[in-house]
Amino acid sequence: MVAVFNKELLSWYLITLKLKETLELGIPSSPNSGIQLTEFPEKQQQKLHQEPSLKITINENGEILQDESTSSESEWVISVGQKLEQALGDDVTSSWDKLSIFKIPHYLRDSSSDDKAYAPQVVSLGPYHHGKRRLHQMDRHKWRSLTHVLKRTNHHIRLYLDSMKEIEEKARSCYEGTISLSCNEFVEMLVLDGCFVLELFRGATEGFSQLGYSKNDPVFAMRGLMHSIQRDMIMLENQLPLFVLDRLLGIQLGNPHRKGLVANLALRFFDPLMPTDEPLTKSDRNKLETSIRNKSITTTFDPLSDQGGLHCLDVFRRSLLRRGAQSEPRVWIKRWSHTHRVADKRRQQLIHCVTELKEAGIKFKKRKTDRFWNITFKNGVLKMPRLLIHDVSFGLQQ
């Protein structure tokens, strides 16, 4: 900060400054006009030189400019240090390794004027879209599903609330950013949304009529809104931690610590969305239904081959990326130099468009498989699986 004085005040300013130095150092002043300074004691001179001096500059207009750059620089260094301490605290207290449910990056949001690609249109799951007005209509169906669960299991709601309170902190740490919901609001959301999801999962496997729903139910009847609900449930920002669903289902089945069954139910529920002509076999569905009804069974049909899951979207993604048999690497590649391998890798990454391949005489045929990597090329024929792309109730097959 710079202080500016008029020229007339220069002499008085200097006299005042000298008087102040004299009083601080205990040096008597002469009664004569002006200020005479005696020799400073050695310690007092050393102290005076160690203290930062006030720098004064007079501009061309005769104004005094007081330079306070020294104090400003000290404040700046202190400010930087405080920011570093805050960053260190954030790094220690934040559980980055526990995050599993993220928000859509801002640059993707800004590039699209329509949020239908990433925002739920029918039902909200989790805290990110909780309480949005356009999704309130589905909330009454969530409460209706919760009453079905309590009536069917003869449980008190307190059992579910207390169980979710035990894992509230763990569930919060899965979400990116600060969740504004209070403890009670967050726990209530976990119970309400979680039981709603489980009713959908179990209804798709056991039958909604077996769970006590009418065949004309507006939601739990596998028609109408069901496809839109399925679409919302595989959105990135619309997820519940899988361990929350495991706990809620375990309570319903009498074993709160049971794990692995929800992932199987999720695969059965999302089976219509799979880009394949090979849905779950009747034998697989029977095994899944039996594992739900027979509470003593500990091992269940697991198409994920012991792979864990973070949430329903992760389970759905893992089911699409199940690894098949891996071919052995070619031995002759090892005899190549590193330069040739890099150049060959770059050539392999070049993928020609279908038009160019057809012009070259390549023919295409569809394969009935659900493995994306199951692609073969033999005798000029490229066989690859069908990819089903759909949005809400509209489908496009390629």
From TrEMBL:
It comes from Lupinus albus. It comes from the Eukaryota. This is Uncharacterized protein.
